[in-house]
């Protein structure tokens, strides 16, 4: 550690010198700031901002009561619809995704097709602007539920050219109305979701 | 005479950092905007605090992976709870510190739950009160460092944590020794302004 007298000239007035000495002592005590991993350096992840704001307690109770009521109605309606062979499983929807700072030029549309009779939800992802990754790199699509990564839905690579990528994916899970998807970049052997490159357009 | 210097083991001060936070935007302003779901404000706050929060988590958890997870959870909690911050009750930094500490404590409990054995030797580490005090000081000092202009921060980091003398810092940065001294003094004065009152 440097000596304070080596850093600051002797001609500094006493009051100022005392202030600077205090900061010097704090810097010595604090030690160096840590080196950030690429994951932290990359910035906030989508998962952070998908978590829902905390609600006041009174409002939470009212919401809970309303949710129970809605679930009860939904159950009855679902039961009826299910017995008719229609319902949620016949829905088709398209979600727009836009690039994060990790892939600012990227855009994608994720079409969720009707579920098959076994409960698989085929999906078609059309993406542009995704850069080519290194030799061991690939992109992974994740289902996000309640603000948390819930399950993988498939992976793909990009050549990094201007042509769009069309990949067929599948969600072998019971989808819920508020489910959403993100795309991350991964390296072989990764056990966790990497940096988010595409997230739902808000 | 030319000095043969090895590259110091320090983080480089990036030429382009993620959105340089406007000086006039306070942490409290950012939290108010985050409560309105402003992702840009969240991004700015994240880059202001990520290093100090990571340092805090690392000191406590002593495991980079767990510390990273704690930082992620901390920022998720900030996003969730920003609306509960009340500027009239005080500055944002202690509020953020409390959120970070809670996330780290949660991680620490998990670590204890999964730890196999109780150590046989009494630790010589500082007790909880001392550790908390040191952690808060380090947290604020690292956060204050982020407010320095990159040129001043670079000089401070080289002078304090690379083992270089001021002459060597000057040689390394290809700037006159007088400039190194001016930047050092200016940086310490700025840090004193930022930290004054919070740590006295």
What order do the helices and strands come in, and which of them pair?
The complex is a heterodimer of chains A (202) and B (200).
Chain A lengths: L3 H4 L6 H17 L7 H4 L4 H5 L6 H28 L8 E7 L7 E6 L8 E8 L8 E9 L2 E9 L8 E7 L8 E8 L7 E6 L2
Antiparallel strand pairs in A: 1-2, 1-8, 2-3, 3-6, 4-5, 4-7, 7-8
Chain B lengths: L26 H9 L3 H23 L2 H18 L10 H23 L13 H18 L4 H12 L4 H8 L3 H19 L5
Helix pairs in contact in B: 1-2, 2-3, 2-4, 2-5, 3-4, 6-8, 7-8
Give an overview of the whole structure:
The complex is a heterodimer of chains A (202) and B (200). Chain A is built from five helices and eight strands; from the N terminus they run H-H-H-H-H-E-E-E-E-E-E-E-E. Chain A is elongated, with a radius of gyration of 26 Å. Chain A has helices at residues 4-7, 14-30, 38-41, 46-50, 57-84; strands spanning 93-99, 107-112, 121-128, 137-145, 148-156, 165-171, 180-187, 195-200. In chain A, a hairpin with a 7-residue loop joins strand 1 and strand 2. Chain B contains eight helices and no strands. By secondary structure, chain B is an all-alpha fold. The N and C termini of chain B lie far apart (44 Å). The interface between A and B is large, with 41 and 52 residues.
**Termini distance of chain A?**
49 Å
**Major sheet of chain B: size, sense and barrel closure?**
none
Poorly predicted regions of chain A are 80-90
- Specify the biggest β-sheet of chain A: 8 strands, antiparallel
Fraction of helical residues of chain B? 55-70%
Largest interface: A-B, 41 and 52 residues
Give Rg of chain A in angstroms: 26 Å
Features:
heterodimer, A: 202 residues, alpha+beta, 8-stranded antiparallel sheet, 5 helices, 29% helix, 30% strand, B: 200 residues, mainly alpha, 8 helices, globular, disordered N terminus
């Amino acid at each position: 550690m440097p000596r304070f007298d080596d850093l600051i000239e002797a001609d500094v007035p006493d009051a100022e010198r005392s202030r600077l000495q205090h900061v010097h002592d704090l810097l010595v005590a604090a030690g160096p700031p840590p080196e950030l991993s690429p994951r932290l350096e990359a910035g906030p992840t989508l998962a952070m901002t998908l978590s829902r704001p905390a609600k006041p307690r009174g409002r939470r109770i009212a919401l809970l009561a309303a949710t129970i009521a809605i679930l009860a109605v939904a159950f009855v309606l679902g039961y009826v619809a299910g017995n008719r062979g229609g319902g949620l499983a016949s829905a088709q929807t398209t979600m727009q995704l836009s690039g994060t700072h990790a892939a600012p030029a990227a855009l994608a549309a994720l079409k969720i097709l009707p579920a098959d009779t076994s409960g698989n939800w085929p999906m078609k992802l059309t993406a542009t602007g995704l850069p080519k990754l290194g030799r061991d790199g690939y992109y992974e699509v994740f289902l996000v539920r309640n603000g948390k990564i819930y399950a993988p839905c498939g992976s793909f690579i990009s050549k990094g050219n201007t042509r769009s990528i069309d990949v067929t994916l599948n969600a072998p899970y019971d989808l819920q109305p508020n489910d959403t998807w993100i795309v991350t970049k991964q390296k072989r052997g990764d056990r966790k979701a990497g940096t988010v490159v595409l997230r739902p357009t808000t | 005479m030319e000095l043969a210097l090895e590259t110091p083991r320090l983080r480089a001060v990036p030429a382009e950092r993620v959105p340089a936070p406007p000086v006039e935007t306070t942490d409290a302003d950012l939290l108010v905007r985050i409560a309105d779901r402003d992702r840009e404000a969240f991004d700015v706050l994240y880059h202001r605090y990520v290093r100090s929060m990571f340092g805090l988590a690392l000191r406590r958890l002593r495991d980079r992976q767990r510390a990273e997870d704690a930082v992620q959870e901390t920022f998720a909690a900030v996003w969730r709870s920003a609306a509960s911050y009340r500027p009239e009750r005080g500055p944002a930094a202690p509020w953020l510190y409390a959120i970070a500490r809670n996330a780290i404590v949660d991680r620490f409990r998990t670590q204890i739950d999964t730890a196999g054995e109780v150590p046989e030797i009494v630790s010589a580490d500082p007790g909880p009160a001392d550790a908390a005090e040191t952690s808060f000081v380090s947290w604020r000092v690292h956060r204050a460092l982020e407010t320095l202009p990159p040129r001043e921060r670079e000089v401070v980091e080289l002078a304090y944590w690379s083992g270089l003398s001021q002459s060597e810092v000057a040689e390394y940065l290809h700037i006159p020794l007088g400039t190194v001294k001016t930047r050092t003094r200016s940086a310490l004065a700025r840090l004193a302004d930022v930290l004054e009152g919070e740590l006295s």
